[in-house]
Design brief:
- With 123 residues, this protein is mostly beta strands.
- Helix content is 0%, strand content 60%.
- The protein contains no helices and eleven strands.
- Strands 2, 4, 5, 6, 9, 10 and 11 form a seven-stranded mixed β-sheet that branches. The protein has a four-stranded antiparallel β-sheet with strand order 1-3-8-7, with no helix packed on it.
- It starts with a strand and ends with a strand.
């Protein structure tokens, strides 16, 4: 079994910064892609940023230049550094990972989600 545990959410004023972390644990052989999604009240869950094992990243237009995604492959951990936060960034942020289970001989890839962490941007 695999678990993703997020941390780092909270209340921050507009213009402030936060750093989210998501650590994977369990029967992980490797992790291909890790990412962050968010869901605001009354809205659909949306992509924020992703990073694959080689380091390539992808960002939603709304966060480009303000958010940075990074990962520590040795720790199976992904980070989201959020700067210049805006009230519209308020949402529950979810960690996502495409995990390779098994061994070097044969792997199965499955997608896992964290439980979510609340980010509130308000004065």
């Amino acid at each position: 079994q695999v678990q993703l545990v997020e941390s780092g959410g909270g209340l921050v004023p507009p213009g402030g910064s936060l750093r989210l972390s998501c650590a994977g644990s369990g029967s992980i052989f490797s992790i291909y892609a890790m990412g962050w999604y968010r869901q605001a009240p009354g809205k659909q869950r949306e992509l924020v940023a992703t990073i694959i094992s080689g380091g390539s990243t992808n960002y939603a237009d709304s966060v480009k230049g303000r958010f940075t995604i990074s990962r520590d492959n040795a720790r199976n951990t992904v980070y989201l550094t959020m700067n210049s936060l805006k009230p519209e960034d308020t949402a529950v942020y979810y960690c996502n990972a495409d995990v390779d289970l098994g061994s070097a001989v044969m792997t199965t890839r499955r997608t896992y989600w964290g439980q979510g962490t609340q980010v509130t941007v308000s004065s």
